[in-house]
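User: Here's a chain of 229 residues. Predict its fold as tokens.
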Amino acid sequence: MADYVFAPPPVVGVPVLGSDTLFPVRRIYCVGRNYLDHVREMGGDERDPPFFFQKPTDAIVLSGTSVPYPPFTQDFQYEIELVLAIGKGGADIAAEDVSGHVHGLAVGIDLTRRDVQIIARKAGKPWEIGKAFDHSAPITAIAPLQGALPVSGAITLAVNGETKQSGDLSEMVWNCAEIVAQLSAQYRLEPGDLIYTGTPAGVGPLMPGDRVTGSVAGVGDIVVDIIAA
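Assistant: Prediction complete.
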């Protein structure tokens, strides 16, 4: 057995509803600009297809816990998302076969340092500084997939009880099956991968003391509290 210079980091696990087991997270993929109204509010070209970026595995924060306000930003924002949990790997997965590769569904929030993301985007630089920081991927427990992938259903987010985002999964540019098919053409997917599938319009700022609640119909409810660093 190999010796390491220091102890390897622990595996990040997400609870699975109805089970005592954890879903071990391998990678976190996110889809950018996958709802037309969000593309428009961000000033993007709605003719462009969505694209993918990643967050580090240890950015996971479980629902019901707190998120410290991150450094290096003056515009910390929320984005409510449906999350797909991959249970069977593959490359070039056909859209009609995707449901057999999805272990379950969850509700996630893609937390974003919007100001630094916009600066990086305008400079033609990668988005990681605005997206891939500590505590930036809150998520609920994973609900095992029962039947077909959802193609509709309300997706909402509120801050301190005030609704900020309200959309429907049917408004996605790419649906769940198309997302996995397209992503698997770019990367071989493996069990343990999470895919955050994009957010509707209404993104906005957060401050210490805010309580963020969100839901995806038929999937679950998420809550996180923003605290001072």
